[in-house]
Design goal:
It contains six helices and five strands, in the order E-H-H-E-H-E-H-E-H-E-H. The protein has 137 residues and is of the alpha/beta class. The chain has a single domain, classed as Methylglyoxal synthase-like domain (Rossmann fold, 3-Layer(aba) Sandwich), CATH 3.40.50.
């Protein structure tokens, strides 16, 4: 599975701690992230993370494009609800996830549910809808 990681500045440490806690599960999948979040996670966990641009330079749009092309299976976007103005990047990612049926978590509680489901195989259905896969019969 391809998992995208994004985090607002005040939630980056939480993302790092989450990825450390679930590195055993995350290590079995392909991770990508916006630049700063991805570097921090990779440095803290040793997990390989494909880096996109930082959010302010278009990284969320790059991940959004991958969602649109069915190249992302799950998004973990730890957002800061106390930010004075939630940015359009978060809105873009959430709308695209809704449009393309991509599981998305914006907080650690939901992220834990998704990761535990991933470990159990609850998200294996994503493999059947990727280009070149055999559809359900």
């Amino acid at each position: 599975m391809n998992i995208a990681l994004l985090a607002h500045d005040r939630k980056k440490e939480l993302m790092i701690q989450f990825c450390i806690a679930y590195s055993g599960i995350l290590g079995k999948h392909n991770l990508c992230a916006t630049n700063t979040t991805g570097r921090l996670v990779a440095d803290a966990t040793g997990l390989p993370v494909t880096l996109h641009l930082s959010c302010e330079h278009g990284g969320a749009q790059q991940i959004g494009a991958r969602i649109s092309y069915n190249e992302i299976d799950m998004v973990l976007f730890f957002s800061d609800p106390q930010a004075h103005n939630l940015d359009s990047d978060q809105d873009l990612i959430i709308r695209l996830c809704d449009q393309y049926n991509i599981p998305v978590a914006t907080n650690v509680a939901t992220a834990e549910m998704l990761i535990m489901g991933l470990a159990r195989g609850d998200l294996d259905w994503r493999e059947s809808i990727k280009p070149g896969s055999t559809p359900f019969i």
